[in-house]
Design brief:
Helices cover about 50% and strands about 10% of the residues. With about 425 residues, the protein is of the alpha/beta class. GO terms for molecular function: 3'-5' exonuclease activity; nucleic acid binding; nucleotide binding.
């Protein structure tokens, strides 16, 4: 699990009120206990086919759900590949597998077919696991379960502490997991990440059942497990940090050329693109449109530490953008598949703006009653789409169909339909 992932998950949720799950009226829990060592010690890292075959056999013979986690090297290496895979299952213990030495884990994935996988923030790890042949047939996401149950913080450390009473060390989450050999403290941390995942899953299942939300969670988990791989993002260069400062099409072309040149270099070197050239430097060059290498070197991000050859390759990218004909320049904004930004609704369609305002108020009140984040009750994008282009006939059946068409799960459709039927009946602000 990455540092950014843990930090985001530990940020208090945007709940609209309510209280976190109670303890059934019991007295205050004792002080949490530090969890310092895996139960069976730190297992050896699996780096060859013979050892992997033994692990596959052991986990196939195990019982119950399997805890799964993966460590990436975000910020250090190109892409989001896994550099360590951790698993734990009753009867098999804990395994640490090096997917660099053993890049095909499809045999392990097949051995675990039909077994429930327990992951924390599953959507973060599933893409890199899929790359090495591991795809779950069913899963339980402890982070999402915590959100649905109304916990104020849902990072793994916070959840393990509040639910199970143990403190996990989180000091190695942001390290370079592509390092070989991996230091023992890192391996201890990695093994502990799956040590209590199944215990956490079992406690959260009971809490969700107590709140009447277990079926909702199961629908969410099924949706994650069966979701197709994400399509490659169109025009990823448009996500360069600071793009809001870039106004002219020629400047946009510079961002595109520099971003693409940086990406090629980063991929070739297998390093994070930010280590090749920062987003801030790309934006700085786009705004300045430097005439030559000397002018480029004077900009922030292209200082004295950068060699002449590097400066020349970046200036070449700038020059390519400057030489493009008008027809080859990118448009100021991406083609938007869906409604415009909400801030523009009042001018473009005041009635739609009124519908959206009413819908947001209604969803907020519903989320407060359910004690969960609004975005888990229904995605904001779905609400915007339905409010911008409502069904021709506003009734429960048509709204249910619209919500389902945008991917809402049955439990969401059932709860949100009455709210949106009322909101879509609003005629003016």
């Amino acid at each position: 699990m990455t540092d950014a992932q843990e930090t985001a998950a530990d940020t208090p949720l945007r709940t609209t009120g309510g209280t976190p799950p109670d303890d059934g009226g019991t007295s205050a829990a004792p002080a949490p206990t530090p969890l310092l060592e895996p139960r069976e010690g730190i297992p050896p890292v699996i780096t060859d086919e013979a050892a992997l075959a033994e692990v596959i056999a052991a986990f196939a013979a195990g019982s119950g759900p399997v805890a799964v986690d993966a460590e990436r090297a975000s910020g250090y290496r190109y892409g989001q590949r896994a550099y360590l895979v951790q698993l734990r299952r009753d009867g098999a213990g804990t395994a640490l597998i090096d997917p660099v030495a053993c890049p095909d884990l499809s045999g392990l994935g097949e051995a675990l077919s039909g077994v429930e996988w327990v992951l924390h923030a599953a959507t973060q790890d599933l893409p890199c696991l899929r790359e090495i042949g591991m795809v779950p047939s069913g899963l339980f996401d402890t982070e999402l379960a915590g959100r649905l149950a109304g916990f104020p913080r849902v990072g793994l450390g916070a959840m393990v502490e509040s639910v199970l009473g143990f403190v996990l060390e989180k000091g190695h989450s942001a390290v370079d997991w592509s390092t070989r050999p991996l230091p023992e403290p890192w391996l201890r941390y990695a093994a502990l990440d799956v040590e209590l995942l199944v215990d956490l899953r079992n406690s959260l299942e009971k809490e969700l059942d107590r709140q009447g939300k277990l079926e909702w969670a199961q629908q969410e988990f099924h949706a994650i497990a069966t979701a197709p791989p994400a399509e490659p993002r169109k025009d990823p260069w448009r996500r360069t940090s600071g793009m809001h400062k870039v106004r002219r099409r020629r400047q946009l072309a510079v961002v595109r050329e520099l971003w693409q040149a940086r990406d090629r270099i980063a991929q070739k070197r297998d390093v994070s693109p930010g280590k090749v050239l920062s987003d801030a430097a790309i934006v700085e060059a786009a705004i300045a449109l430097p005439a030559n290498v000397h002018a480029l070197a004077a900009l922030n991000g292209f200082g004295h530490r950068m060699g002449r050859r590097q400066l020349e390759q970046w200036q070449a990218a700038v020059d390519r953008a400057k030489a493009l004909p008008e027809a080859g320049l990118p448009q100021p904004g991406q083609a938007v598949n869906g409604p415009p930004p909400p801030r523009a609704w009042a001018d473009k369609d005041p009635v739609a703006a009124a519908r959206l305002s009413a819908a947001r108020t209604g969803v907020s009140a519903l989320a407060e009653r359910l004690n969960m984040p609004q975005e888990n009750v229904i995605t904001p994008d779905t609400v915007r789409r339905v409010c911008w282009e409502p069904p021709k006939v506003v009734d429960a059946d048509s709204v249910e169909a619209a919500l389902a068409g945008y991917g809402a799960r049955p439990w969401q459709v059932s709860l949100v339909t009455p709210v949106l039927v009322d909101a879509l009946s609003v005629k003016s602000a």
